[in-house]
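Today's session is about reading a structure prediction critically. Students often jump straight to the picture, but the first step is always the sequence itself: look for stretches that repeat, for charged clusters, for runs of hydrophobic residues. Only then move on to the predicted structure, which in these notes is written as discrete structure tokens rather than atom positions. Here is the chain we will use throughout the hour.
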Amino acid sequence: MFTYFLAIIVLVCVAIAGVKLRRRRIRQRLLNSTLQAQDWAIVQEMVPMVGQLPDALQKRIQGKINLFLDQIDIYGRSGVVVDRRVELSIAAQACLLIVNSEAWYSTLRTILLYPSAFRSRQKNHDGFVVTEESQVRLGESWQHGPVVLSWPHAEQGGLNGLDGHNLVLHEFAHQLDALSGQTNAIPILAAGQRYEDWEKAIMAGYDAHVENVNHNRKTVLSDYAATNYVEFLAVSVEVFFEKPQRLLDEYPDVYEQISHLLGLNPLEWA
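Below is the predicted structure for this chain, in token form.
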């Protein structure tokens, strides 16, 4: 009897190992793949910033877009129609963040798109007292999914890469942050990056920004970045891609740490 159960356990283990191996092979095949010519043309039209990437990263982002769309389902709500242009726009913007790093949105399976800002119910806990409030939002990111977006704002963020605002980059910065197990502005850092350097840069940058906001001094970061450390990081990521020189000038340590984290330096792009 013991031999029988042992054999069953071995067979189950072999089957599980086989499934994992097959998944790894599929993943690697997708990462090594490129987009079809018409899809790549759509990506460059919907997210012109992708065309600024160095050639090697343009090749890499295509494979990541394929893997992203293989893993994640995108659904339209309240009349939003999800076609290939919509899928590629969202995927390309999300993959910009991780085009040159080992990070991956491993827990995300669903993205929901709305035709405009949407109402979100939030629960607040104060000891044994739980209150619920309704807030109007353009985007929302949950630690284990889904990501919820206003499609018009997500589309515009991809089309305009110079205004310092990008909803997809913002919400997926939260996804990247959450990979550590908590959304707390302390993501899993890159190899060789020190947590003490990261925390010092983010905390000092946030404190300086709050001071600027309190004194009505305009900076490259929006006032929303003064909400808390988490939003400060997400807004800084938007600006890192869209107004890199100003972020470097005003918050150099923040720029340096985000650049190290993502393995990117937009100032070097065409």
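Discussion point for the tutorial: The chain has a mean pLDDT of 90.
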